[in-house]
Amino acid sequence: MFTSLGHFINDGEGFLVPVVAAALVAERGLTPLEVTIMFLAFYSSSSILSVYVGNFADITGKPGPIIAVGLTLISVGFLGFSLSVLYASGMPFLASVTASAFLAGFGGAFYHPLGASVLRSAFHNKSEGKALGINGAVGSVGRALYPSLLVLIAALVTTFNALAILAVVGLFASSVIWLGLKKVPKPASQTNQAVERKTKFSAAFTRGIVALTAVTFVRSFAVIGVNSWIPTFISIQRGVGITNMLGITLTAMYASAIIGQPLFGALLDRFDKRLILGLSSAGCGLSIIGYLSTSGILEIVLLSLFGFFAFSAFPLVFSLASDYAPEGSSSLANALAWGLGVTGGGAVGPIVTGAIIGNDYAHLGFAFEIMVIVVLISAFMTALMPKSQKSTKVALFG
């Protein structure tokens, strides 16, 4: 329950950052370059620091309470966004926004690798995919609800006061999670002697983990390269602005993963995991092509389909990482696959999108088309991943 609550808060706040960027464009006139710098601070801090967080969790054997620390950092970062808009201007404003994004990104480095380690210690391999899928679905509920919650609360106060309210909720939830997970027993694999712990860092770099990290880097490069700029695209290019329609559209996109994550989790327990990862990546690309080519209700349906495929990474990545990871290095292996792979690619993708659009938001559609090509490449790359020795599935890639 507490890991699911953590996923709800982590993804709800973390995936709200692109909406914050769109609001800053609308209310403070941020340029594409300034938005790109904000994304760089947010996504890169999560990627760079996640490996150290995962290694620290393996050494201490206490991933549960450390999850609460990460959620606290995200919420403090969101308070920083709110205070920046309310009390700063000029260069101090831009510096404060960038620092808040960095802090929120650092907090985002904690949940996914550590939450997966807690779940791995609680479930056997035969049901691990399903457990990850259900837990991921709760994270998807957070992603789906937060954009609409922000817009609804903003109707009563202001957008950035609403952001502060959500940050306070996050701080309260992190204290509950810390209390709930501080007595979670260590996994058996984390009772090793101190000498063995010193070898964990190098031991985590298995061929499978390296290949998984490379594939997820390319996939996330494209997915986050699109997702981070989608609110701005909808707000400006589709003429929606920061309105209820923006919240409804984003909720539809994220809500589809509530069904998608458990479904993909169940498929992982029955079929070749590499095939499922490849199919989900191909689905991301095809749905975005359809979205760019349509309008009205159909575009919302296709954007929802993008969310169905794109936000299935939690069960897909960590189920494969579990198969490839050596005993005693699960949190670090998770951090490599997620931090350097998913979040690392996600740090570079938005920057490349920003470089493509230059100083004109009208180029966003073309940038998305480039990202489609990249995500389709990642789908083909899954065939190069090694067969897991732990998996009981029939290998479809030899």
How are the SSEs ordered, and which strands pair?
Elements: H1 2-14, H2 17-28, H3 32-60, H4 63-87, H5 90-107, H6 111-122, H7 125-154, H8 159-181, H9 194-197, H10 200-203, H11 207-227, H12 230-237, H13 244-268, H14 273-292, H15 297-310, H16 313-324, H17 330-357, H18 364-381
Overview of this protein structure:
By secondary structure, this protein is mainly α. Helices cover 79% and strands 0% of the residues. It is built from 18 helices and no strands. The protein has helices spanning 2-14, 17-28, 32-60, 63-87, 90-107, 111-122, 125-154, 159-181, 194-197, 200-203, 207-227, 230-237, 244-268, 273-292, 297-310, 313-324, 330-357, 364-381. The longest helix is centred in the middle third of the chain and has 30 residues, at 125-154. The radius of gyration is 20 Å and the shape is globular. The two termini are 38 Å apart.
